[in-house]
Amino acid sequence: MGIVNRETFCQCTAKETKPLVSADGYQWMMLDMQGKRQEVAALEAKMSEADRMDMAKAALTVLGKFMAAAR
To answer: Are 44 and 52 in contact (CB under 8 A)?
Structure first.
């Protein structure tokens, strides 16, 4: 198992997650990866609960794929 740098991880995560979330969810994820906490908080405040749940599901799905690939 090799070490993956942050940029590679973020690019792969973005690719894997995009079809799983809304446009706001995708933008939220991109801002979060860039460390833009204020923008993330503002966007999250306007997102529906369903969008936030979809983000959590997508994050778990992608994390599961990465963990399975690392084995």
So the answer is: yes
